[in-house]
Write a structure and sequence with these properties.
Helix content: 40-55%
CATH class of the largest domain: Alpha Beta
Number of strands: 5
Length: 212
């Protein structure tokens, strides 16, 4: 089995070294580096190109979310697992939006962490049980998309978002690389579907429906 190169990023030295010592006992996992903050994690990720990065979320300076976003931007193939003591909604969503493939809590058994690293290296998304329950709760509490909002196509939603930025039909056409007449038709369809009297009203309706 090929070794999985792992970078550990945590501002607590004891945590970093403890994780490295535990994971070193696993034959297929190789710790290639340790970072004490987000900036060092970004630099080492670019230098070492690890397969998986264990990232703490709260660190001085550049935090784990910002570091994850920077690493994923520079190295799209990098797999970042957030490993933290914090399980609140804000951190969870921010980390996943930044490109983290997994979110685990530090109280998990070491053997499960090794399995999570293997899963991440194989393209899976390891999520701890408590975090998974939280995600399910968050999803079930989301408001259902109204039929009115669902009636807009993906392209029309894109146009509506550009309308919200104050772009004219010509500017929308240029932004989406479409004909100005096509942009005008999209705007007309949006006004009709949202029962809006003008562009400003359409934007307001879009905000009310959660499209913007």
């Amino acid at each position: 089995m090929a070794e999985i190169a792992v970078l550990i990023a945590d501002d607590l030295r004891l945590m970093r070294e403890g994780l490295a010592t535990l994971l070193a006992l696993t034959p297929d996992i190789h710790i290639v580096g340790q970072a004490a903050d987000g900036d060092e994690a970004i630099a080492l990720a670019r230098q070492l190109r690890p397969d998986v990065i264990l990232m703490d979320i709260r660190m001085p300076g550049t935090d784990g979310v910002a570091a994850t976003q920077a690493i994923r931007s520079a190295l799209p193939g990098a797999r970042v697992i957030i490993l933290t003591t914090f399980d609140d909604d804000e951190y969870l969503l921010a980390a996943l939006r930044a490109g983290a493939c997994g979110y685990l809590l530090k109280d998990m058994p070491s053997e499960q962490l090794a399995e999570a690293i293997r899963a991440a290296a194989q393209g899976e998304s390891p999520i701890g049980p408590a975090v998974a329950r939280k995600l399910v709760d968050m999803i079930t509490q989301l408001p259902a998309k109204t039929p009115l909002a669902a009636s807009l196509s993906e392209r029309e939603i894109e146009v509506l978002q550009l309308m919200a930025r104050g772009l004219s039909n010509k500017e929308i056409a240029e932004a989406l690389v479409i004909a100005e007449g096509t942009a005008k038709n999209h705007v007309s369809n949006i006004l009709s579907k949202l029962d809006a009297r003008d562009r400003a009203h359409a934007v307001t309706r879009g905000q009310e429906l959660g499209l913007l």
